[in-house]
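Amino acid chain:
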Amino acid sequence: MPSTCKTCGFPRLLSMTQAWRDGCIVDNTSGSASLCIYEASYPTALINELEDRLGIPLERIVYLAGTHAAVKVLGVLYESHPHVSKLLFSAPFHGLTERMLVGFGRAIGVANVNIVERKRRKETRVIIENPFDLSNCLAIISGILQIADGCNIAYNVLEGNGAYLVEFTPTPSDMHEEEAYQRLFAENLAPRLVDHAAMLSKCQACGAPREAGELCEFDIERGLISERGSGDRMIMMGVHGYNSIIRELSWELGDFVYDVFIDFEKKNLSAKLAGSAEDNLPWGEEKLRQYFALRGLGMLDNFVEKNGTTSITVHNAFIAPLVAGRLLALWELVNGREGSYSFDVTDNLLNFSIS
């Protein structure tokens, strides 16, 4: 089977395992929102900005959240098909399973990962090339190994000059790490059924949205995704990991963290789209609904412009501050001035008002 669809160019592994529905990109096995299409440079820049503003290191939180996101997605195999899962991670099939998981990482644009040495429950060495973010890549691989070997995993970066040689080894459980692990564990992000569905055109050959292949170009061999229009590197980012980071920081530091996320997203998307003609901006009810649904950011339900105020409701907004920041950036680009906003999210329902 070819790695990408000959008709639309979308990775076959993703079209077989993921479905676009209710504004989300959903894992077919778990029914949970798993991925979103996002600019690859943003996660690293966001964490750097948060560290500067908050004055605290966040690398460990990012690592644990990413590990849990991988465990959450892969753990579905055990929960739904325990006998099949035991077989997949046992000899002689475990090698094939591990290579498939590496291929999945390439397909979503995480990195080009090659397994150099693999001794189950003892030592694993990999070479990582083109990582979109090293901490996130290390977390994802640790999550995969945690599921495969049934134990906690530590890593050591042995070499890093363009490519990274990394050794992963089992590690004893730590009480503080276990507490953080449980607190960061991803919630169930199953999207609710919504009435105002976006009509995405399915590829007749693979079933993925044709618009996904039109939006992005996939270089699976190198683990790279690029946006066709801008050339920007993109990633099919894990929704669980980002959701966990937002939740953890808001618990620890308060809701003002949402404003930091919103401001970051507004600033970066505004810079990317600066100079775009208004007709080319995804603004208005139908354009926004398509824009968010294709990227897996939620399903726009309500869009009302009245007396200089725009009120918007988005269902299944599992990373709501990101969605709000994009709405603010687009509103300001269309209106040519800064806007003030009110933000509320309850049970993954985003109510956002801009004036």
The mean pLDDT is 87. The CA atoms of residues 59 and 135 lie 7 Å apart. The chain has two domains: 31-184, 255-354.
